[in-house]
Amino acid sequence: MEVRELVYFTAVAEELHFGRAAARLGMTQPPLSRAIQQLERRLGVALLERGGRRVALTEAGAVLLRESRTVLDAASAAARRTRRAGRGDPRLVLVIKPGGDGGLLPAILDAYQTEPGALPVELVCSFGEREILLREGRADAALLHRPHHDLTGLDTQDLLTETQVLVMPSSHRLAGRTRVCLNDLAGEPLPRWPGASEGRSHGPEIHDLGQLLHLVALRRMVAVLPSSIRDQLRDDLVAVPVDDAEPTTLLLAWPEHATSPALAAFIRTAAAVAGKTTAHGG
Amino acid sequence: MEVRELVYFTAVAEELHFGRAAARLGMTQPPLSRAIQQLERRLGVALLERGGRRVALTEAGAVLLRESRTVLDAASAAARRTRRAGRGDPRLVLVIKPGGDGGLLPAILDAYQTEPGALPVELVCSFGEREILLREGRADAALLHRPHHDLTGLDTQDLLTETQVLVMPSSHRLAGRTRVCLNDLAGEPLPRWPGASEGRSHGPEIHDLGQLLHLVALRRMVAVLPSSIRDQLRDDLVAVPVDDAEPTTLLLAWPEHATSPALAAFIRTAAAVAGKTTAHGG
DNA sequence: ACAGCTTACGTGTAACGTAAAGATA
DNA sequence: TATCTTTACGTTACACGTAAGCTGT
């Protein structure tokens, strides 16, 4: 089974139309048709049901579509990681969410730089879909939150578990409370995180923390955030605990099977710093 | 990047010798050499250092070797899963260790068969490397133990956490104790699990539970096992708790991204049965 | 009759094998 | 000099495109 065949099949399976798939691939239909036939012959399985004017996936085709994506993702990640390892200039690329480091990052970076063999750390700030950068081989590690991120395919190290607080303007109807629960938020606009499933949050789409706090100050919405956000709160905002919001765990994630000693040292350092901070900080 | 290129590179990287790699691949050296050169050109990275009589991996080559294995494993698993989905005869293949089901399996199977859309369950018994069957696409789910198995690349559902007991002949010097600790076992031969790293266990290699208990009865060794093993103990053997042995968690594991409804129902059923059992059984 | 997948056929690229050359210890 | 990788060259296989054929709607 060749990568080319999987690319072809994926295109046809997604388009459910040989002509459009061929156009997308920059080729003509006949060789595409033959390639799929050959794949079916080699697998000994029908992948597509061709009706006169309707193409549909068989059960096996649906399985192969999912599996193909895994294989193709792995292949492009492999190429990217190899290229990154080959071009000199070794760095550790860490992807973070601005304001989403629980206040730990400065201490971690300082401690890591004293490690023997420490690499320069390149910080990449990104709001949405940060875990994808890891799976694509574009980054070495990421600071993520459980349960907000999908951690399949990643190894993780827990750093810090935090309760969540409601952030709102001082003039908000709930600002005087010492605690709230999720039911109190019914009808409040909540931020829409880019890339998140189109869930119930109906507020504006958010791209960075400054924007978020600004919109909260403007009474456009309120936000439920990890309590460490308090360190970065503007004077015109207040935060009160949300009793029944699930605690959030800040964690360090990296691709499975990663073996780089520099990454291992970084993980160790981060765990040590987080452990120390938790021990006397809470 | 094509699968063929990765196969070639993997062979050379493992042999560190173009001639042997070519022989292993059933081809001659020159096209192999060219294929590697082309791969290096396309990636823009040197993968191998050719000294007159010595071939070595560059750093990038080491990265690609690891990544290649991931890609190739994913590709062959994709083919196998697709074939399994294509050949009619849908079944749920569950791999277990004889005696390693914590006594839950009969109840799980009974409950599952009452589910709508339940598939026939095929049980595969295997002692070593059970998780590999999942990664290779040969099985749909497996009963494994944490921390004994490597769970990377798998999703899991915890079923049952058990303390561990020392199993020995009634005549053993420790048989009268009500509890032991790991230090008491210094010098005792312990079973060698097939596929496990060549660790400190210096006893005979074990392939099934009957053999293990037989060898224990013959005073060839003792074994530390989950306490549910007591249900299956022969009369001439005794089990006492090991105070400082890490508790073992029996769990159900399946490949990441699995989407089969039959598997989902099986997971739900297993979790429900385990929860019920734990609730009144301890 | 038309849209769309497939078969037929001719062409070019590329992968392979044999043979010869270059490089290193 | 011996061993091992690379370059050179001729052949074969395979993937692609154009054109014609077939099939449901």
Automatic annotation (TrEMBL), chains A, B:
The keyword DNA-binding applies. It comes from the Bacteria. InterPro entries: LysR_HTH_N, LysR_subst-bd, WH-like_DNA-bd_sf, WH_DNA-bd_sf. This is LysR family transcriptional regulator. GO terms for molecular function: DNA binding; DNA-binding transcription factor activity. The lineage of its organism: Bacteria, Bacillati, Actinomycetota, Actinomycetes, Kitasatosporales. PROSITE patterns: HTH_LYSR (PS50931). The keyword DNA-binding applies. Belongs to the LysR transcriptional regulatory family. Keywords: DNA-binding, Transcription, Transcription regulation. Signal peptide: none annotated. One of its GO terms (cellular component) is protein-DNA complex. Gene3D superfamilies: 3.40.190.290, Periplasmic binding protein-like II (3.40.190.10), Winged helix-like DNA-binding domain superfamily/Winged helix DNA-binding domain (1.10.10.10). It comes from Kitasatospora aureofaciens (Streptomyces aureofaciens).
